[in-house]
Amino acid sequence: MFQPLSNKKVLLTVGPTREYLDSVRYLSNASSGRMGLALARALSALGAGVEIVSGPGVAVPRRFRSVRVRSARDMFSRVRERFGRADVFISAAAVSDFRPARRISGKMSRSGGRSARVELRPNPDILDWAGGRKGRRVVVGFALEGRGGLRRASWKMARKRCDLLILNGPETMESERIRPTILRPGARPRALGLMTKERCARAICREIMRLVQK
Ligand code: C5P
């Protein structure tokens, strides 16, 4: 069987991150990691060596090399350790943009029914870091945007120096299907219509194959 990516190593982030407020509560999102896992399967069917950095709640099949993380900062440090040996970096994780400024040890009490404030600090942007030091690597990002997202997505692709960016809507989260638009620098955006995440993964792989062969 022809395996066009057999000499390529792909580092892939998948799933949500958790940002703890105290020992039991956290901020997170509804990412299921399905798109990322579909990509892992499609890439490995093409012969690529896939390594996954996965957020909590994602059932990564045992056949993939993977490491589990909780917070965005954990994810960032695992990516930094592995980035050097990757030919392709794909950021499919829904990374929390913020974390609580303080993590309280134990469980926050109701403090007599008074309201409480949480101060949030920005998390590191892993994809932005990767784009800034990619060298000859191919860097792929995702963007979840509502209406009018095309302009923001193109801007993001340029700012984070991605070679490929997959734009999709908020309805993608937790869903089996996706309505992707594929963006590449200097090319016209390509809207692909509603499809399964498996099919979308194969479309993304075709783009990646073109990019690694350049
Ligand atoms: O800016 P925004 O969160 O929409 O960017 C989405 C892309 O950036 C996704 O590919 C996501 O995995 C990545 N990202 C990241 N680190 C963050 C936030 C987003 O790698 N802190």
Structure report:
- With 214 residues, this protein is an alpha/beta fold.
- It has one domain: Rossmann fold, CATH 3.40.50.
- It contains five helices and 14 strands.
- The strands form four sheets. It has an eight-stranded mixed sheet with strand order 5-4-1-6-9-10-12-13, sandwiched between helices. Strands 2-3 form a two-stranded antiparallel ribbon.
- A hairpin with a 6-residue loop joins strand 12 and strand 13.
- Helix 1 crosses helix 5.
- The longest helix has 17 residues.
- The protein is globular and about 65 Å long.
- The two termini are 22 Å apart.
- It binds cytidine-5'-monophosphate.
Which strand-content bin applies to the residues? 15-25%
* CATH homologous superfamily annotation: CoaB-like
Largest beta sheet: strand ordering:
5-4-1-6-9-10-12-13
β-strand number: 14
* CATH fold-level label: Rossmann fold
Distinct compounds present: cytidine-5'-monophosphate
Distance N to C terminus: 22 Å
Decide which structural class fits the backbone.
Answer: alpha/beta
CATH architecture: 3-Layer(aba) Sandwich
Characterize the biggest β-sheet: 8 strands, mixed
Low-confidence stretches: none
